[in-house]
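Practice problem: predict the structure.
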Amino acid sequence: MEYAYSNFMMGTLATIIGMGGVFAILAILTFTTWLLNKIVDQLVPDAPKPAAPAAAPKAAAPAAAPAPAAKNNAKIAAIVAAVTMAMGSTELKFKAIERTGAPLLPWAAAGNGTIMGDRARLTEGGNK
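Answer:
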Protein backbone atom coordinates (compact mmCIF):
# COMPACT_ATOMS: atom_id res chain seq x y z
CA MET A 1 0.00 0.00 0.00
CA GLU A 2 2.85 2.35 0.80
CA TYR A 3 4.41 1.70 -2.62
CA ALA A 4 1.24 2.72 -4.52
CA TYR A 5 0.88 5.84 -2.38
CA SER A 6 4.44 6.97 -3.06
CA ASN A 7 3.98 6.44 -6.82
CA PHE A 8 0.81 8.54 -6.69
CA MET A 9 2.59 11.31 -4.78
CA MET A 10 5.56 11.19 -7.15
CA GLY A 11 3.22 11.41 -10.17
CA THR A 12 1.30 14.29 -8.62
CA LEU A 13 4.51 16.14 -7.83
CA ALA A 14 5.83 15.57 -11.38
CA THR A 15 2.55 16.88 -12.81
CA ILE A 16 2.63 19.98 -10.62
CA ILE A 17 6.27 20.70 -11.44
CA GLY A 18 5.69 20.11 -15.17
CA MET A 19 2.58 22.25 -15.38
CA GLY A 20 4.16 24.92 -13.20
CA GLY A 21 7.24 25.00 -15.42
CA VAL A 22 5.15 25.33 -18.57
CA PHE A 23 3.06 28.08 -16.98
CA ALA A 24 6.20 29.93 -15.87
CA ILE A 25 7.74 29.75 -19.36
CA LEU A 26 4.48 30.97 -20.94
CA ALA A 27 4.34 33.85 -18.46
CA ILE A 28 7.95 34.79 -19.33
CA LEU A 29 7.19 34.64 -23.07
CA THR A 30 4.06 36.75 -22.62
CA PHE A 31 5.93 39.39 -20.64
CA THR A 32 8.84 39.39 -23.12
CA THR A 33 6.47 39.82 -26.08
CA TRP A 34 4.62 42.63 -24.32
CA LEU A 35 7.90 44.35 -23.43
CA LEU A 36 9.27 44.08 -26.99
CA ASN A 37 6.01 45.46 -28.36
CA LYS A 38 6.29 48.48 -26.06
CA ILE A 39 9.95 49.04 -27.02
CA VAL A 40 9.20 48.84 -30.75
CA ASP A 41 6.23 51.19 -30.36
CA GLN A 42 8.56 53.74 -28.70
CA LEU A 43 11.29 53.39 -31.35
CA VAL A 44 9.11 53.32 -34.47
CA PRO A 45 6.41 56.00 -34.57
CA ASP A 46 3.09 55.02 -36.11
CA ALA A 47 2.19 56.40 -39.50
CA PRO A 48 -0.32 59.25 -39.40
CA LYS A 49 -3.82 57.86 -39.53
CA PRO A 50 -6.06 59.07 -42.35
CA ALA A 51 -9.17 60.98 -41.39
CA ALA A 52 -12.10 58.69 -40.76
CA PRO A 53 -14.66 58.81 -43.55
CA ALA A 54 -18.05 60.20 -42.67
CA ALA A 55 -20.47 57.51 -41.63
CA ALA A 56 -22.75 56.71 -44.53
CA PRO A 57 -26.28 55.53 -43.87
CA LYS A 58 -26.60 51.77 -44.13
CA ALA A 59 -27.98 50.57 -47.43
CA ALA A 60 -30.33 47.61 -47.77
CA ALA A 61 -27.83 45.74 -49.96
CA PRO A 62 -24.19 46.45 -50.78
CA ALA A 63 -23.44 47.95 -54.14
CA ALA A 64 -21.54 46.10 -56.83
CA ALA A 65 -17.77 45.90 -56.47
CA PRO A 66 -16.08 49.14 -57.60
CA ALA A 67 -13.74 49.24 -60.56
CA PRO A 68 -10.02 48.91 -59.79
CA ALA A 69 -8.49 52.11 -58.46
CA ALA A 70 -6.00 54.03 -60.54
CA LYS A 71 -3.16 53.04 -58.21
CA ASN A 72 -3.73 49.40 -59.14
CA ASN A 73 -3.28 50.07 -62.87
CA ALA A 74 0.50 49.69 -62.60
CA LYS A 75 0.08 46.32 -60.88
CA ILE A 76 -2.41 45.20 -63.50
CA ALA A 77 -0.09 46.29 -66.31
CA ALA A 78 2.81 44.41 -64.72
CA ILE A 79 0.73 41.24 -64.41
CA VAL A 80 -0.43 41.49 -68.02
CA ALA A 81 3.17 42.04 -69.17
CA ALA A 82 4.36 39.02 -67.18
CA VAL A 83 1.62 36.79 -68.61
CA THR A 84 2.41 38.06 -72.13
CA MET A 85 6.12 37.28 -71.68
CA ALA A 86 5.38 33.85 -70.22
CA MET A 87 3.11 32.97 -73.15
CA GLY A 88 5.61 34.30 -75.69
CA SER A 89 2.90 36.33 -77.36
CA THR A 90 2.78 39.94 -78.45
CA GLU A 91 -0.94 39.86 -79.20
CA LEU A 92 -2.22 39.71 -75.61
CA LYS A 93 -3.99 42.94 -74.68
CA PHE A 94 -5.66 44.06 -71.47
CA LYS A 95 -9.26 45.19 -71.91
CA ALA A 96 -11.00 45.03 -68.53
CA ILE A 97 -11.23 43.20 -65.25
CA GLU A 98 -14.60 41.68 -64.61
CA ARG A 99 -15.91 39.18 -62.12
CA THR A 100 -16.82 35.91 -63.77
CA GLY A 101 -19.63 33.70 -62.61
CA ALA A 102 -22.77 34.60 -60.74
CA PRO A 103 -22.87 37.92 -58.86
CA LEU A 104 -22.38 37.80 -55.13
CA LEU A 105 -25.44 37.49 -52.97
CA PRO A 106 -26.00 40.51 -50.70
CA TRP A 107 -25.03 38.59 -47.54
CA ALA A 108 -21.87 37.26 -49.20
CA ALA A 109 -20.87 40.74 -50.38
CA ALA A 110 -21.46 42.10 -46.86
CA GLY A 111 -19.33 39.30 -45.40
CA ASN A 112 -16.52 40.02 -47.87
CA GLY A 113 -16.68 43.72 -46.99
CA THR A 114 -16.48 42.93 -43.28
CA ILE A 115 -13.49 40.62 -43.73
CA MET A 116 -11.61 43.15 -45.89
CA GLY A 117 -12.40 45.96 -43.44
CA ASP A 118 -11.12 43.89 -40.52
CA ARG A 119 -7.91 43.05 -42.38
CA ALA A 120 -7.35 46.70 -43.25
CA ARG A 121 -7.97 47.78 -39.65
CA LEU A 122 -5.67 45.11 -38.21
CA THR A 123 -2.77 45.99 -40.52
CA GLU A 124 -2.97 49.80 -40.32
CA GLY A 125 0.13 50.07 -38.15
CA GLY A 126 1.86 47.01 -39.53
CA ASN A 127 1.40 43.43 -38.39
CA LYS A 128 0.98 43.92 -34.65
